[in-house]
Specification:
This protein is of the alpha/beta class and 190 residues long. It has a single domain, classed as Rossmann fold (3-Layer(aba) Sandwich). 33% of the residues lie in helices and 33% in strands. The chain has six helices and ten strands. An eight-stranded mixed beta sheet has the order 5-6-4-3-7-8-9-10, sandwiched between helices. A two-stranded antiparallel sheet has the order 1-2. Strand 7, helix 5 and strand 8 form a beta-alpha-beta unit. Helix 3 packs across helix 4. Bound molecules: guanosine-5'-monophosphate (5GP). The site of guanosine-5'-monophosphate has 20 residues, from strand 2, strand 7 and helix 5.
Length: 190
């Protein structure tokens, strides 16, 4: 998506360890006009899907999911990073290895908000090695719900996540795919 790629080139900052900082428009300060366009584009790409819930993970995914949900007119649910490992039976839970924080989180979602009748679109800000997305997929599967697809704002195409998810047969739509970020030079997949 040209609008997003141009913004990444203008305001994104490449940090050591293959981390792209987009704090000025997506991850800390949020450009709502831009994110609104991202939401519209997700709707266009998943227009033929019957979606009943949008699922994301705290924290960065929530704002993007909420704006996107207005185009689908469905609720947003977000998986929470739980401090405790004493997890009661009322939640789906899984473990996620954090790319940016280099640690493992327990991630939970209340069973009240997701069930076998649901058709889920997963939304997140970044896709790198795929751990966050695989955790969310695990939660949807535990609920017996249907995964209709995954919408990602920025996929780092040189990491394995995209391939893993596409190989599972899931419709994965990434609005910008970065093929390399060597020497602070960003290139996008056409
Ligand atoms: P994965 O689980 O696919 O390895 O990483 C995805 C998660 O890690 C995203 O939810 C995002 O929060 C974070 N992440 C991964 N790579 C980057 C990056 O380059 N920049 C930022 N800002 N976050 C990232």
């Amino acid at each position: 998506m040209k609008l997003l790629e141009d913004r990444i080139l203008k305001d994104g900052v490449v940090k050591p360890g293959n981390v792209l900082k987009v704090d000025s428009f997506l991850n800390h300060q949020m450009d709502i006009e831009l994110i609104n366009e991202l939401g519209k584009e997700f709707k266009r790409r998943f227009a033929d899907k019957k979606i009943t819930k949008i699922l994301t993970i705290e924290a960065s995914g929530i704002g993007i999911a909420c704006i996107t949900a207005q185009y689908f007119q469905v609720p947003v649910i977000f998986a929470k990073k739980a401090q405790s490992i004493n997890i009661d039976g009322d939640v789906y839970s899984t473990q996620v290895q954090s790319f940016t924080h280099q640690r493992v989180y327990n991630v939970i979602l209340s069973k009240r908000f997701l069930g076998p009748e649901d058709h889920v679109l997963i939304i997140d800000d970044f896709l790198a090695n795929g751990c966050a997305l695989l955790g969310l997929i695990d939660i949807v599967k535990s609920a017996g719900a249907t995964i209709e697809g995954a919408g990602i704002v920025i996929e780092k195409g040189f990491q394995q996540g995209g391939q893993l998810i596409r190989d599972m047969g899931i419709q994965l739509e990434s609005l910008a795919i970065i093929d390399s970020m060597d020497d602070c030079q960003l290139t996008f997949r056409a």
